[in-house]
Design goal:
This protein is an alpha+beta fold. It folds into 2 domains: about 140 residues, Aminopeptidase, CATH 3.40.630.30; about 150 residues, Gcn5-related N-acetyltransferase (GNAT) (Aminopeptidase). The chain is about 30% helix and about 30% strand. It has 9 helices and 13 strands. Strands 1, 2, 3, 4, 5, 6, 7, 8, 9, 10, 11, 12 and 13 form a 13-stranded mixed β-sheet that branches. A hairpin with a 6-residue loop joins strand 9 and strand 10. The chain starts with a strand and ends with a strand.
Length: about 300
């Protein structure tokens, strides 16, 4: 039968998440994870459903894409379908069509994240797409207990959302927040925490000797015996260079182990040398670099 492209309804989000959980592997490139849907759900479940594209054949979901902005799709292909030539050709056609899955970033340019989908990558390259910036996936097996750094770790509940959000803002923006910023970001976190994916997640904060929150992480389980995801991880701008990134990474790995995950994974731009060093110091092992694929203006 033909391959069908669809956008799920809100009540179909669980089937997309379950497929992504089944497709996670302990080794190799870290493709789209159910936790990525969870993090995106800060935008609300309706917006998250609208951003997902599913390719199905004979009732089986074989590929899932998340539109993460106007010109970027983050893709996962069922592991047993990655060398399926018909599927790779269909994905290539849908992704390369400027009027198709990717509307482009304003000038017709677009980016595809398709880690591990080698046949699809080759077909896009043959159509003139180019390799973009390199990323490195880090994995840590969780078969053994994780040694932590002795700092206080708190699993953040909704009544403490402000603590987590304030550190995250500082880590990724480094600017002063207005009251409007605070209300908006706390509201987004609460939307995520009340959404359909958060049962598999934990938001963590670690505190220094003065009991100040200094670093945060969110972790997403794909179920017992499967790899979990660290996304995001951040250290408060005023507390960098003191080992808190390693400490919160270890706390995140320990939490995933408690949730039954077989390993912990995170992917980082290879140019981010500080993050690369942090994950290595937390006992994570890098895999070979992978690149996004970029289509120029049309």
């Amino acid at each position: 039968m033909s391959i069908i492209l669809s956008t799920p309804k809100v009540d179909e989000l669980s089937s997309a998440a379950e497929a992504l959980k089944r497709w996670q592997l302990d080794e190799g490139a870290l493709q789209l994870h159910s936790g990525d849907l969870g993090w995106h759900s800060q935008n609300g479940v309706e917006a998250t459903a609208a951003a997902i594209r599913m390719w199905s054949r004979d009732g089986e979901v074989v590929a899932i894409g998340l539109l993460d902005g106007r010109g970027l799709v983050r893709l996962a292909v069922a592991p047993h379908r990655r060398e399926d030539a018909a599927l790779a050709r269909r994905l290539t056609a849908d992704l390369d069509d400027p009027a198709g899955v990717l509307a482009g970033d304003g000038d017709g340019g677009a980016t595809v994240e398709a880690r591990g989908a080698e046949l699809l990558t080759q077909l896009l390259l043959e159509r003139g797409w180019e390799r973009d910036e390199p990323w490195t996936t880090f994995h840590r097996t969780l078969s053994d207990p994780v040694e932590e750094r002795g700092l206080r770790v708190e699993t953040i509940e909704p009544d403490r959302a402000e603590v987590w959000v304030a550190v995250h803002w500082s880590a990724f923006r480094g600017s002063v927040r207005t009251d409007a910023d605070r209300r908006r970001t706390v509201g987004r976190w609460l939307t995520m925490a009340g959404g359909p994916f958060y049962g598999d997640a934990r938001s963590l904060a670690i505190f220094d000797e003065n009991d100040d929150a200094v670093a945060v992480a969110a972790v997403w389980s794909a179920g017992p015996g499967r790899p979990g995801l660290l996304e995001p991880i951040g250290v408060h701008h005023g507390h960098r260079g003191r080992g808190y990134g390693t400490a919160v990474t270890l706390a995140a790995a320990a939490t995933l182990r408690d949730l039954g995950s077989s390993s912990a994974g995170v992917c980082v731009q290879s140019s981010n040398l500080g993050a690369m060093a942090t994950y290595a110091s937390a006992g994570f092992t890098p895999s070979a670099e992978v690149t996004d694929l970029r289509r120029g203006p049309r």
